[in-house]
Amino acid sequence: MAGFVYFVEGRQGLRPEELNTLGLKHVADGAGFKRAPGQAPARGRAAGLYLCDSGGDLTSLSELRWEPYPGSPTVLVGWDSKSPPGPEDLRRGEQLDGHEVELAGGRRWLVPVARYPRGDTPLPRRLQWDGKAWADGEIEERFRELWVGAERVWGEIVGAAEGDGAGIAEVTLGESADLASLALSINYRVGPGELSLLGLLTTANQADVVLSVVDWPSVKLFLKGAPPLGNSEGPGCEPGPEASSPATPQPSQNLR
Length: 256
What we know:
Elements: E1 5-9, E2 33-38, E3 48-53, E4 65-68, E5 75-79, H1 87-90, E6 98-102, E7 108-112, E8 125-129, E9 134-139, H2 141-161, H3 173-187, H4 192-197, H5 205-213, H6 216-223
Antiparallel strand pairs: 1-3, 1-5, 2-3, 4-5, 6-7, 8-9
Helix pairs in contact: 2-3, 3-5
């Protein structure tokens, strides 16, 4: 069975906007989700509501592995432990371009780029009309948190490279993992809970995810003289002044 199934104790109905209060706003994609009232999959739990993404399956529920959803005491999450959900099962209908990163389990996940080295962004933006012409406006609201996180990480990396380039970017493990989780949720129906239960993030690969968010792989290619992400005229190419540091910075103990 592809994907995850969720059980919400004590509920017989659930509106899409209520998913956020349960920590499950990432569950429903554009096509919505399926619901089915039923008995709890674990002893000591009251009857409730099963739900999954529209592409999921609400049959053979007894064969799934069930665990409490982290941070949501009334929610259980189930999946096929013999064939855990992967990137192809959880990909969103529309994905943002970026870099592939191998997570625990050996499968590669597409991480969206939020910030190019010279400061612009490929994230979708609203268009604004000033009475004469159209121009780029603000980043769409659902992507703003990712942009803010990318700006924070890039600022730390560049700041660490100032002077003799011996500095180390100060990004905590918690900040880095939060940004990695947020980035993955843009292209896949996962949140911190799913990533944790499947053990997909490690102290090593979460750094690869975060560095992909700020297009670091393209910086490395540029330093080697190879073409970066995008075409030669694209915004992700040749890093501008912000990336032109005396030495490549050490991304930090949490971004190595």
